[in-house]
Specification:
Eight copies of one chain form a homooctamer. The first copy, chain A, is α/β, with parallel strands linked by helices. Chain A has one domain: FAD/NAD(P)-binding domain, CATH 3.50.50. Chain A contains nine helices and eleven strands. The longest helix of chain A is centred in the N-terminal third of the chain and has 18 residues. Chains E and H meet through helix 1, strand 3, strand 4, strand 5 and helix 4 of E and helix 1, strand 3, strand 4, strand 5 and helix 4 of H. Chains A, B, C, D, E, F, G, H: Pfam families: Thi4 (PF01946).
Chain lengths: 254, 254, 254, 254, 254, 254, 254, 254
């Protein structure tokens, strides 16, 4: 068989075009590909929910690649160990209740799980704004290519519609802040000091629908609530992602 | 149980310190975490070879995350389809002999396979130089944290020893060029024009030991040989990585 | 009627997708949207040739927008006046044989003419490399989004096939230089000193096929030939574009 | 005839100097060369109003060149279709009521129409401030070369006088904000969330004189009013430009 | 004896790893390696207190290296002369009561004294946040490699625990400002105008515990108190460092 | 009398326009406003030669403003003292034969002298190329606004014609290098080591016509000749400027 | 006589050192070398007042070098014409009452006049802060080399004492703003819209002592007062400088 | 006693001015404040040689502050242990013959030793060129403030004379390269691959006078000789510095 460059290009264009058009309307859009966003998306996908994960960077995984201070290991506590097992991440017990995994493996296994669950990834994609129509709920996102902004160019965005949006953008709680800045009834209080114990336990309850159609998970949940900052431990993130998936599925009646 | 921040930090430091010290001497160092480097490392690991994958960026995966022109799909031809199967990557047949996979999934599954095979990842790590002692062969690498160079700081590197080195750095063939620049008997001819058909078939034969102790794979192999540039198709990359793993294992007597 | 954001996005995606796929194989690709490239493309289009104009910047028009030293006027000599008329550009006679037009109008009218002639524009698109297969001729282009490079990202390109390529990239003669750099039998001599009189008359004869499948026009033609630099006068550019269109059409048997 | 470089330079200097001096006093200054500014200027010019269009960038056209997310197509709804016809822009019906045009053609045809209507373009020109004398109305603009600011140099501006000013600067509503910042009786509320349906219909009524002598059009009109953000559809922009032209002409008694 | 590169690397890794782990819990963390921080750390070390000095830059010494306006000399008044003697810094009397030392020597001798007193230095380390648990006191620091931030990367930090923290970060009073920004009961008033006489005498009394567990010294002390700015004279800095050491030791019961 | 902003702007535009048009053809263009260029221009102007001084920066004066290492004083030796007197620069004798002047005053007095002699200054103007027609001599310059290049914009230049050109661009000998780069019969050897004594005496003889129509003066003269570098003393510069003026006037028959 | 490089360096160092030490205490420090600062300093110097002019840039002259929009001409009205005469600046009458001068000549002649009047210039010098002691008046300045800040280095400043300080820093009114920011009883209202007529006449009355020991002149005077912005006309600047000189001299009893 | 800001400033200026003038002529100038430069300067100072150490950065110490890969420890082998003892640096034996010291302490103690030996430090000082007069030997240096270059300003340098110059600029061998670039009879071969064993032993013999008046030490010695690169071990550096001091002293007859 002879390879043809044009067929290769056409294959890429046709396949991705179909995905783009299919996901112009989707059940759920998760913004941010860190641990809580990935866990949430993977678990929604497993329930058969149509879910798009939108990541502004080229690679998925957020801040987890670098472990703690570039030492690529992460720690997970007892409560979340079952999620490591669920996603196939290997680990070692350091002290009773403290499990250490490799950050690179954890990222890869979470992404792989989300892919296997049917999640569609849109990387290099920045959310510029949200769509709120007469019903007063977040009904879609205004998106653009990330490099357009990095290059300082002025190009108009496109829009995608979704029934539920999950803000998994970390410290910045970017979607929540957009709504606050435009006068939506929502206040982002910002993280307080670091206190791992408290932050890890409270993040679950702060994971909720904070504005009609908008859920928040992971560090973004604590940032919105003015809760303590989380330490270099990832159990709370994964559990928060799981909780967000549960709440969203409930909302969608799945 | 109460979470303790110091225990978390100590867990990360102790675990990664052990990895760092363990890998100061290793069988193989693969430089570059793109498709050919990942395939090579995964297949070496499966054979029980101690293998470190060194990547200068924060995330692993190289240029594959973005697919073609930011449309996150990749194409693989018939010959390499079995490797997609081997690494658990799902795909769709576009036309007979042209299989399309998602770039994000492909990256994640390749990393996951390498992790499962016992490969150790060192990301944010730049190779500054190579070590060549009296035997005239590449016997180790001079490494540093990538952010040190990005920040324009002057900090001395450390060294790691390895029996075999694999240059999987893509177009730039960075390790090969270092040796050429310092007067080693090696010429990097640079890629020629794009011609996918030819480049895909020739990359396998250009995958070889190009200097005592140094193997080359993927686009770097074609760049060293002055071969044609590869199109947006990844079969040749994966097959080249497989071949490099075979040659290295042979050299090591595994 | 109610406006729907998703329909709007789908309309844009579907329409442009069709154009992208249609132009994966085209008769002619003109690289560079300055005056000679625009004239060449417009005149080819008028002859019914399928022609894509690829421009790396966001806007089309090249260096003509700013006139001379930001005074947005251009001058055209007697010989090329008929082309101003042909494209509907208004002008004023300054001295016998020197016609002054507005640079903004000239750009707009040239683009409008090319559009009316059926030329398809691909802006924000950078040509990274050329495709040369066994027949030794330029048979296609390796293209990428411009912002990808501006943002310093590493994303693979796609390829488009074309029967004829026109290098209209100005001073830099970028396509010709790519071929020279990769060892093609072609030398880019670089512009000599400015001498408007000579440069304007010689540019026509330097407009030709300089490598199998590759034509050169405008300032790029003089740069390849080592000819004098053109003054702030645009007649030679337009006439060179006209000549390139003629030669390409002849080659294609139109 | 022999071409003379000095005559060419003199022609450019003399012609543009006349334009500069002529437009030191003009009926209308439109700030911003996007779709609403261009439509407004073209329609004013057609009524015989002396009109200068001031654009800070080198090229005219604003954000329209890139279509939606770099897919160079735009959508126009039924209500504004007659303006596409008026400016000679070709289009295709995608679904009933949704017309798709090429973004490059649309820009070029709008500029061409404005030129044909006698509008004078001043590109690379930044408005630094406005002139308000004893009568409390915007009576002129303080302008400078754009590259002076880009290069971080300190060079004093010049002034131009105009009877009416049109703020067509998009999201930023830059002229309106200047007046607000300096204590003028005017509040720029900023755009609300995206809601295409509402934004498109309301932009017409928000197009008005917002401060003595200052009119606002296009996205700037919605930004001043705190109205919803417009989707990737251009009918409202064109209709707003038409309305601004009508209001300004009325004010001038044309 | 034969030198082995791997042994060298292992020696560095092992020794520094032990220091890192040892100092995950320490009595005192001094933030900032300027004159007051160095004096404080040296004097605490001499009392047998376990003390870590954390400096964000590569080199220790802060703003003292450059003397005044790059003339590398510093002045110390009569009251602090005994500290120059204590640290072994040589000087010359310029006028009665004004002693001039070399800035380079002063930095080196202060660091040497701190080293001899057992202080451990962590350079290239940035404090990103503080740890405040249920007891409402600063109980630790959230730290990261400085180059990570300089390179614009997103990598998670680690934490260290300490009984007392000393903010010796100069003008910026960075630790105090972190606490203020997150709602701690603390106000950083900012330096007032320069008045050396007053600033030098008041800095001693402003050196104190400003928040449970947090002490402030040197310019940071004056910045928190809204006190006058210090002139190019270093006696007050050294005396403030001495006072901070005294207060901290007292608190620790040493 | 009432001040009118438009009259002010018109006055500036009209007056400078006349200068621009008048100097499209001039006897002499001096490139570079450092000491040798200023002295040359002033002395040519005094002889009644029409002379334009073109300076790429905003301010005139080159490297002289900063004296030596930002200590704003310059030294002139006995031989050139009469030129300080001629230009009205005050000085003090430091040791016999060494006269010290203020750098700021020296610049201002040299510019003032050139203005009084009728020299026309074109600042913020960059020479991009030279014009060489059939007679093989430098007959003009290709010029552009400096900020255009600083801002990375692409705008075409204009041309000015001149009978003689003086390269006073310092170390870089920029005009000479342009000619060398484009294949003119001229070699720029580059400065040798610093040796003030030799450099100061030789610069006079290296001041000459180095290419038909092109003279070189000051540091550029030594750079072309491969002569020693000049110390922080300005006598040679001024004497070289004087010599250049003499040679140019002779050539012009004045 | 033989030239000696060391003698040249010593001459520069010794002479400037004397100036630096002499001006550690001076009657007046004028901050900013634009037209009003230069006029003020020159006229104070003529009255025998010891005066230092401190300029942050390398060259003196501020924004005047570039004329209006890089057309290097300035306009002066009838009232200030006598100051052009006084400083020896040549001009042409454009219309009755509007005199046009060359911007380059005007700068040079103003500096020359200030030098002849004995003003000492300190260029490349940034004022970082002011000194206010127990008497509550500005009694000195905290200064540093400008390049230190441009290079992002941290080096301590030095101080100079002066009886009167003149803020001639233009739009920014930097000295006034420093005092406002640190809580001094002073409000900088910022410039209002441009209205040349009013701004030119009011600037004289706004020229005054605005804080004990601090006078304000030129655009800074209007910025402090919230007055209208001045047009591209320089009479008001010169007259304001003259008035500032008068007020300062009066204060000093000269 | 009352502190006076002006006295403080005067003290700094007077003291450093004396140092500057004293060192305009010196026995030895060592360029570069890394370990070999510091050791060389300290040992020369101990022999009573007048020695200036010139460092381009703000802090002294070069690349040693960061240890290996930001782990601030260094290793020294048996042969050089006596130099650690001589300079008072504490260390721990890691394995027989491998001594580990803290990098921060090592830098500080080396500087302190040099200060105690009477070495004068000139930091923030860049060597731009060398002085070579009729005798063909390096007789001095052309120096400038480092921030001037960092800020992209153009300010002339000053010169200092010295009998011997020591190039201790590390990898770059900057002084040797300056001489090579300007045609001096000297070739800088560049470092070869890393081989610690060989590099450490050969550096001593490569430490020598490489051009009349110019000695080379440390990594610069190996770079000039084309010798192997040194590992992260500092014994060779210190011994090379000791040897350079010996050779220089011999040359000077001390």
């Amino acid at each position: 068989m002879t390879l043809n460059e044009v067929t290769i290009s056409r294959a890429i264009l046709e396949e991705q075009h179909r995905a783009l058009v299919d996901y112009l309307e989707t059940d759920v859009a998760v913004i941010g590909g860190g641990p809580s966003g990935l866990a949430c998306a993977a678990l929604l996908g497993e329930r058969g929910v149509s879910c798009a994960l939108i990541e502004k960077k080229l690679s998925i995984g957020g801040g987890m690649w670098g472990g703690g201070m570039m030492f690529p290991r992460i720690v997970v506590q007892e409560e979340a160990r079952r999620l490591l097992d669920r996603f196939g991440v290997t680990y070692r017990e350091f002290e009773p209740g403290y499990y250490v995994a490799k950050s690179v493996e954890t990222v890869a296994k979470l992404i792989a799980a989300a892919c296997d669950a049917g999640v569609e990834f849109f990387n290099l994609t920045t959310v510029e704004d949200v769509m709120v129509r007469g019903d007063g709920r977040v009904g879609g996102l205004v998106v653009n290519w990330t490099p357009v902004g990095m290059a300082g160019l002025h190009v108009d965005p496109l829009t995608v519609a979704c029934t539920c949006t999950v803000d998994a953008t970390g410290h910045d709680a970017m979607i929540a802040r957009m709504i606050e800045r435009k006068g939506g009834n929502l206040q982002v209080k910002g993280e307080s000091f670091m206190w791992a114990e408290r932050a890890e336990s409270r993040v679950i309850e702060h994971t909720k629908e904070i504005f009609p159609g908008l859920f928040v998970t992971g560090m973004a949940a604590n940032a919105v609530a003015g809760e303590c900052r989380m330490g270099p431990i990832f159990g709370g993130m994964l559990l928060s992602g799981e909780r967000a998936a549960h709440l969203v599925a409930e909302k969608l009646g799945r």
